[in-house]
Structure formats: C-alpha cells, structure tokens
C-alpha cells in the first residue's frame, strides 16, 4: 500500500491514499473584529504547533496574530509589513487574553496592559506559562493606537482625531460662524441650560432642527419670548451642541459630550448628529461601558449600536467579564430588552 503527502500551502494540504486525493480542512486563520477588539478562534492547536492569522484591520493598519507552542505558549502581535507600518509604526496600548473554547467557564489567561511601538513580529512576544491546547480563543483589545508625524514630533492617538480637514473656503465660513456664536453677533435667542445661559441665532437653530424650526414658526412661547429652556443639558454640553450646529465643534469636545449630544439629537431630531454619536459609541465598546451602551442603544433606538453590544457580549464571549454587573443591569433594564438579550443567548450558546 502506497501513501504519500503533498504540502502545497500553510493553509491546507492534500493527502493521497490508494489513488484517492482528500483535501483537508482549511486552517482556522480568520480573525473577527468589532470596535477595538479582535478575536481569533483556533479549532485545533497541538502540543508542538505554529499558526499565523490572516490579516485583520484595526485603526489604519492591518495586523497579524501568531501562536507557537514549545515549552511555553508564545503569542505575537504585529502589523502587516507595509509602507505605513514601516514609516509610521503604530504605538499600541493593548491587552491580550487566551482561553480554551467550548467550556462554560473559559478561565482566561490575561496579559498585563502593554504599550509599545510595533514594527515587526519580534517587537512583541507574550510567553504564556500554561498548557492551553485544542480549541483556543485569543483576544486582543486595543486600548489606544498612536502614530508619529512623518516629519517627527510627539505621537498622537488616531482616536478620536481622524476627522477630515475642511477646505480653505470652508475654514473662512467656519471662522465667521464661530465669531457669531462666541461673540453673540446679532444673536436673537437666549438658551437657558441647567447651569447658565447662552445666546444663539434662530436661523441657525431652525435650519439644523425641525423641532427648533417649529418652536419659532407656530407662535409657541419660544417665539414670543425668544428663549429656549434646555435644562437637561449643562452649559458646557449645550455649548458643544451649538458648536456642532454652527460647524465649529472640536473633536475632543464631541468625544467628551457625545452621550449628552445623543440625547439632544434624539430630542430635537438632528439625524446627522444622532448617527455620528452612534458611530462614535460603537468605536470604543469595552467591558466597562458595554451595558451602559446597550441601554442607550435601546433608549434611542440605535440598531447598529445594539447589535454591536450584543455581538461583543455574546459572539465574542465578553458576557463572562461583566457577570458581576449583569444582575444590577437586569434589575433596571426594559423587559423587552431583557427578552432580546435572552434570545441572543439561546442563539449563541448552542450545544456543541
């Protein structure tokens, strides 16, 4: 009986026995990502093995994970070789977790928080003194990604400062609008907030929000008194809202007040701001905020954010990390939301 084996790539091999050719299962190299979390599920990892993931994108770089077993389990994280990773290597702040899949209690092995410049596969190696084998799950959660300017200088985070630069003509218009707001030039409406007052312009508010437009068009008290009560916002958060409406908002102010802005966008029917808040809240889901985000998604009917939170908790298995907070969450959560989460549990936790 003749038997031989032909290896044709790291991804799969062909084995021939008595003239029959059998294609083996493709290697499990795909990495799933959501927000700033990447998860690599490995179906079969032996005692002496090496595996490298397919590239996955987080931030502006493509990344790889690799795992090697000798005396220890060695896990590497590194950017895919490219001009960007060579000229502007990422400075990553991240945490890794490895666990056996399929068990009810996965008992993850968690790394310290690392922060370092990553250029090649030799820049970061995490040795795990453990006997993990078989079906594995490896998580890497990026807490921050920084980049240095090409001409030198201090590294800065790619989150949240990745907005588009306005054109020269737009910059001039925005400077005028900024003066109108900051100096209250011909302002014709006063806004009362929870801790102070602001001046604004009916035309700008009306053009930005159908709710404001209705206030000034239909003889309501806002039209007669030229005042608006927004007492569910602080002076600072309301000023950030106005900065958005006038086109002069700073990224760091948006990031700081986005939850409050979401409530205002929903209340005053400012669709573009509501979408921007949802996208932003979806970008940095983590174990500290995922339940709060879930509640906000339900309250403001944000389907993308809700699906992202559900995927983070159940598809990516982070429900294990919030077990202490989940009881309090369920005591205050809407019943329909609880039912939806329970249905998600039944979908994900199928018998193996």
Automatic annotation (TrEMBL):
InterPro entries: AtSIBP1-like, BTB/POZ_dom, SKP1/BTB/POZ_sf. It comes from the Eukaryota. PROSITE patterns: BTB. Signal peptide: none annotated. Residues 187-246 form the BTB domain. Pathway: Protein modification; protein ubiquitination. This is BTB domain-containing protein. It comes from Populus trichocarpa (Western balsam poplar).
